Automatic annotation (TrEMBL):
GO terms for molecular function: pyridoxal phosphate binding; transaminase activity. The modification N6-(pyridoxal phosphate)lysine is found at K181. PANTHER family: PROTEIN RV3402C, TRANSAMINASE. One of its GO terms (biological process) is polysaccharide biosynthetic process. Belongs to the DegT/DnrJ/EryC1 family. It comes from Flavobacterium reichenbachii. It comes from the Bacteria. Keywords: Aminotransferase, Pyridoxal phosphate, Transferase. InterPro entries: DegT/StrS_aminotransferase (IPR000653), PyrdxlP-dep_Trfase (IPR015424), PyrdxlP-dep_Trfase_major (IPR015421). This is Aminotransferase DegT.
Amino acid sequence: MIPVTKTFLPPQEEYNSYLQRAWDKAWLTNRGELTLELEDKLKNYLNVPYITITNNGTMPLQIALKLFGKGGEIITTPFSYVATSAAIVWENCTPVFVDIDPEHLTIDETKIEAAITPKTTAILATHVFGNPCAVTAIEVIAKKHNIKVIYDAAHCFGVTYNNESVFKFGDVSTCSFHATKLFHTGEGGAMFCNDEETQHQLFYSHNFGHNGPLEFHGLGVNAKISELQSAMGLALFPYMEHIITERKKVTDFYNTNLNFKNLKTLKIRENTEWNYSYYPLIFDSEETLLRVQEALGKENIFPRRYFYPSLNTINYISSNTMPVSESIASRIVCLPLYVGLSSEDLERITTIINRLTS
Ligand SMILES: *Cc1c(COP(=O)(O)O)cnc(C)c1O
């Protein structure tokens, strides 16, 4: 079977040697040495001023919304994973959707200002598939209206924009280290910011507000990563360059071998160094998508409909229609993309797609 993605696992003995350190100390969580070491390695590798690693990629969104959303209206994208809008609703804020740019698939920055009201407290936008939002324009809008910017950068491990980590943009930026993401700890994630005051708020929030064993800095929750998760991150870390190089080869294969006459893929924003996290393919209609999906399924090849449905249509949400997002969501799949996908399999995938779309 060829799935949309396959988790890259480091050699088990390398993982075990990190686990041994947790065993030796009988220390499994609460920011043990493995967590501190991983956090430090990531901080240097990503070249960011502040990072807190967490138990998953959703809690950082909820923490940022708790601190900066303040129960207000949050301007957000309808084209993302459900975690983006669910976090807004979960934190008792109101999602206000703004449609996406049909080329980059990120929130359409030219439509944001029209959606701002006196109740707007923040923008939560996704760098979807690792493609940066129009961060410069969004920053100008946010400053002008005195609202915060939170980026769901779940897909962005290793991405740079204008030679800086994309995690540096916005007041807070988050990442997911879920097993299906580029860099993973099984479950895990991180939150990033650029100033000490925000870092304090994020950091204390993720550990019950603890300021030492008996004192509390403020309200908090438990979003701590465990040593078992951090061990996976440390074991995987040395393979990141290899993973990104191999994924680039698969991406290059699709780019050269697909017939784009009736197909489109993601347009990466200029000045971006991308991470090859997904290979989205946009068909001319949902009907074509379903025909291709059926043909690939018969060959045991399973692309995924990322992201479907458009989040403004989910049953616990009320929203205007978002024509661009709804149209793209109905016509887009992500193709198989992982280390070890053979050229024979890639050949089969592209041949089937080309046969049904050219
Ligand atoms: C994966 C993902 C998340 C959630 O991350 P978890 O680590 O699974 O909690 C949030 N937003 C987007 C866009 C994602 O793809």
